[in-house]
Amino acid sequence: MLQCIFLLSDSGEVLLEKQLTGHRVDRAICDWFWNQILTQGDSLKLVPVISSPTHYLFQVVREGITFLACSQVEMPPLMAIEFLCRVADVLSNYLDGLNEDLIKDNFVIVYELLDEMIDNGFPLTTEPNILREMIAPPNIVSKVLSVVTGNTSNVSNTLPGATASCVPWRKTDLKHATNEVYVDLVEEMDATINRDGNLVKCEIYGEVQVNSNLSGLPDLTLSFANPSIFNDVRFHPCVRLRPWELNQILSFVPPDGQFKLMSYRVKKLKSTPIYVKPQFTSDSGTCRISVLVGIRNDPGKSIDNITVEFRLPPCVTSSDLSPNYGAVNVLADKTCSWTIGRMPKDKAPSMSGTLVLETGMERLHVFPTFQVAFRIMGVALSGLKIDKLDLKNPLSRPHKGFRALTRGGEFQVRS
Amino acid sequence: MAPPAQSHRSPSPSQPSGKGEVSDLKTQLRQLAGSRAPGTDDTKRELFKKVISYMTIGIDVSSVFSEMVMCSATSDIVLKKMCYLYVGNYAKHNPDLALLTINFLQRDCKDEDPMIRGLALRSLCSLGVANLVEYLVGPLGNGLKDGNSYVRMVAAVGVLKLYHLSASTCLDADFPPLLKQLMLKDKDAQVVANCLTSLQEIWSLEASTSEEAARERETLLSKPVVYYFLNRMKEFSEWAQCIVLELVSKYVPVDSEEIFDIMNLLEDRLHHANGAVVLATIKVFLHMTLSMTDVHQQVYERIKAPLLTLVSSGSPEQSYAVLSHLHLLVMRAPYIFSSDYKHFYCQYNEPFYVKKLKLDMLTAVANESNTYEIVTELCEYVANVDIPMARESIRAVGKIALQQYDVNAIVDRLLQFLEMEKEHVTAETLVLVKDLLRKYPQWSHDCIAVVGNISSKNVQEPKAKAALIWMLGEYAQDMQDSPYILEGLVENWDEENSAEVRLHLLTAVMKCFLRRAPETQKALGDALAAGVADFHQDVHDRALLYYRLLKYDVSVAERIVNPPKQAVSVFADTQSSEMKDRIFDEFNSLSVVYQKPSYMFTDKEHRGPFAFSEELGSLSIGTEPSDGAVAAQRVEANDKDLLLGTSEKEESHGYGNNGSAYNAPSYDASTTAGASQGHFDLVSIDQPSTLHPPSSFAIDDLLGLGMPAAPSSAPPALLLNAKATIDPNAFQQKWRQLPVSLSQETSIDPQGVAGMTNPQALPQHMQGHSINCIASGGQAPNFKFFFFAQKAEGSSAYLVECVINSSSCKVQLKIKTDDQATSQAFSELFQSALSKFGST
């Protein structure tokens, strides 16, 4: 059970403190914690679960805001971390983003939310749909409404209907003028390619995201043409597991609005859509670098948003890089980012240049790893295909839409 | 009413005190209190917001308490919420004023809006004022019977809050049986879950004193209750599911059929989107099948995919928590994960702690079929920019080499590392090659050829240098230049800072001499002379031992220094299997993340299901909680000293256990250093060293460093010279000359640690006790201080090295003095001064 939650800014200032039990946690713990971060140099380098002299601390960092939770008793660490992640998600959902100013401007709402999300250190509900009914988000509509009607309360006066319904993630009496449901397949390709161009590891992590604007209590079924490719799946609580186990059919009553219906993993893919070939040749204090990018396996749609990022080794004193396509940007911390954008049809992008090494160094012997990002609209590279989406109890025929998208995730090329 | 005394939370100097603004607020609030004019609520809201924002940034606004309460009569729910928040924050430190709030909270508890009833009840229970508990009983009783589930849910947790405030009131009001009834009947799952958490806590805390509570606690784990929860599993929210699953994991099914039923029922939980639910389910599965080996294996197979998905899907923080658990499972059953080794490949932008876990797992899952690929992957990391990562990777390659039978390819790789000409790579590899040779002496030819080419000038790290020197000595007959390299090293004896290296150098020269006497004679003579003159005790003693051995009989020396060796079959593991089992039992807890069983990082008083200590709860209340702990630790430290002496000896103890006749240099150290010291002090008095105390003390020193000197019965209280001074150079010299007369481990008050943020705090505090700080340094969590003190009468000085680990609150003391008789008294004085740090 958690005793206290702190929200810290990126300079270590306490933005918010929420005591959860009768045993107050003194703020001094935040100073201790911040000192730890300072000695590590970077909040991302600090282990998420650490023990201070007095408390066990759990931390999650989102958009520069540190969510810090303290406990003095043993508890499942993942429960604490998972909860903090949900808090971060709910807050950014409510405040339309997450930063210091947003939290300072809306701290009353943050307090209210935390109040409903956790009591006496035990998480209660983190379902955004239910919270939205208890505490209205600070949107423009409610601001306008409050000016017009003079009623500034941002709290609905009724308790959420769903708390009593058998489908806790959905209100019972939803009405939408537009009756529509959209299904998106969003996939990320994680791949590691070693210096000989061999694929060391390649897998896809994908999500099925649904945006549902349906009236009443719709009951949907979604089936795939090739469900056997899944290596492992995880579902939103709304998915009934029996039909999945029997026929690999997703049967569910959706929450209202955008949500993640399922996530999946597909292992052992054989090839990547693009290749990146870096080459280094050292000669007496300088090093020639050339990087080639091209299509290895045409996905059938155009590849865009291509960027190649790498960090020059510390022994490089200066660099001169020029691409035949796109733009190269070298930052102060020696991060080079080469923005290619859409893959050109007529030529293969390449970048070449020279690196000057520290005096006394003959040749380069640490080589950077290239992080590649790209986007392909309209294709799920895992090969997953949606078969059909049915509505069991249609009041009227809803409008259905499907999309697919693949991005580069942890796509790394070693040199 | 008089304004309440300023609480301890005084604003820090860097923040605006806000005094003026606070009193402004006070008058404004006061004006509004009685007003019923339209628009009052809006003004109030602005003011409340201001008050709360002050509270949030840490300014003490408790002085407006009574005004806030007066303004609380409102129908606006946001205003109410802000008011509850404010009251909850300050009531505990203003119990008198808290009474004022009871009235309006009680009234709100009867409001017609269930939301307000619930919120008011929650605030009422959170006031945390012990002498107001009588006002809680009524509203709580009504809350538990409320028609709305929201209120019941709040009330169920409220009972627990009341219990922590006043257990007797809670029990007298018969709340636990009421909760039990609610738990088994209520149709709202969240109410049921809250009742369960409250009851679990109350009954397990009561169990030690009341038999009935112990019985009740047992019934929570009885078949009907557990099945009741299992059947309602799907109704619970994800978090409540975690709590129920935790309960189920403690349930002991009667037969295997029951186990299968439960597992079938819970299997779909493995697909849950919430990682916490998945892990809790895995815990149930693992614990239930512990006694059924086959099924246990199948469980591993079954949970593999969900775990691997959890690792790749969540945020880095989530991945880390899952990875720690995966790490534990991989270490227990590496063969099950051996085909998934690619999942443990590191991404270059992952944080180091994640990479470290992955490297461990890669090492563990390596087997005949995948070793080649894993080692190839590890070699990629060795070339990495990240130096700690490169080191860890080399160690991993070495570990794989030590656990495999087919090491051919790996040895080649290791030797390639030596040719990379990077200092850290060479250093790390040398240490590994040494270990490898100890296990596979047959590889000596290949290794020696490469090692011989390494210039000892390029090796600076003590561990690596020691390894190189060991090889030079051990394989003296195979390495052409060995005696000459050693000779060069002996010439630079004075520049060698590490005692470990000097010890190895002595032994290596000795070994080399026994094999190639004519070439080494000069080096040996120089080394023995330098060794005897060395100020480090162990080096000095070993040099003397060798000298006497050679004088006595060279063949005996040969037998002792250079006996035939057996290859080491298994290196002692750092973590015992018993400890690993303990951690496994505590699956899905912090133990797994820290890789220690909970008894190693939680205090006894915290080990219960829920027990706080006030002192630790808030850093600012001054008491001395650590006294008992210090005493206990001191005893423990003494025991350890008596048995093993130093940690170095503990290590060699491990070698001894292998049952081999191997005697690494460090092994010599533990057995011979002690003997020779005793021997030396008793017999020879013509040695140049005058630092040694009379023999009786030497023996005391040997037996238990922390024991009070036997002859000095109850030494008189030690008085220190308040004006003692020493200049840093003199200190340094003295520190080098004197032997350690006392080394102890103790602990420091956590409040003291909190005060260490100011580096001057501890030196100033100790100065108050006539102990002066000479030098200090270090970075959190490790701080190092050198202190100096002088006896009031006489000139005997005390030198202290004090290493404080601020995260574990452990302190290591090394005390040197030229007056051995009083070292114990001084140590006590020092520790008592230290223990007062932070509590004053």
TrEMBL record, chain A:
Coiled coil: none
Pfam families the record matches: Adap_comp_sub
Keywords (A to Z) from UniProt: Membrane, Protein transport, Transport
Annotated InterPro entries: Adaptor_comp_med_subunit (IPR050431), AP2_Mu_C_sf (IPR036168), Clathrin_mu (IPR001392), Clathrin_mu_CS (IPR018240), Longin-like_dom_sf (IPR011012), MHD (IPR028565)
Domain MHD as annotated: residue spans: 178-414
Principal place of residence: membrane
UniProt-recorded name of the protein: AP-3 complex subunit mu
Top-level taxonomy: Eukaryota, Viridiplantae, Streptophyta, Embryophyta, Tracheophyta
Automatic annotation (TrEMBL), chain B:
InterPro entries: AP_beta, AP_complex_bsu_1_2_4, ARM-like, ARM-type_fold, B-adaptin_app_sub_C, Clathrin/coatomer_adapt-like_N, Coatomer/calthrin_app_sub_C, TBP_dom_sf
Gene3D superfamilies: Leucine-rich Repeat Variant (1.25.10.10), TATA-Binding Protein (3.30.310.10)
Domain Beta-adaptin appendage C-terminal subdomain: 718-835
Signal peptide per UniProt: none
Localization annotation: Endomembrane system
Region Disordered, residue ranges: 1-41
Sequence ranges of Low complexity compositional bias: 1-17
Record-level GO BP terms: protein transport
Keyword Nucleotide-binding in record: no
Oligomer status and interactors: Adaptor protein complexes are heterotetramers composed of two large adaptins (beta-type subunit and alpha-type or delta-type or epsilon-type or gamma-type subunit), a medium adaptin (mu-type subunit) and a small adaptin (sigma-type subunit).
Function summary: Subunit of clathrin-associated adaptor protein complex that plays a role in protein sorting in the late-Golgi/trans-Golgi network (TGN) and/or endosomes. The AP complexes mediate both the recruitment of clathrin to membranes and the recognition of sorting signals within the cytosolic tails of transmembrane cargo molecules.
Family statement drawn from the similarity comment of this UniProt entry: Belongs to the adaptor complexes large subunit family.
Protein name (database record): Beta-adaptin-like protein
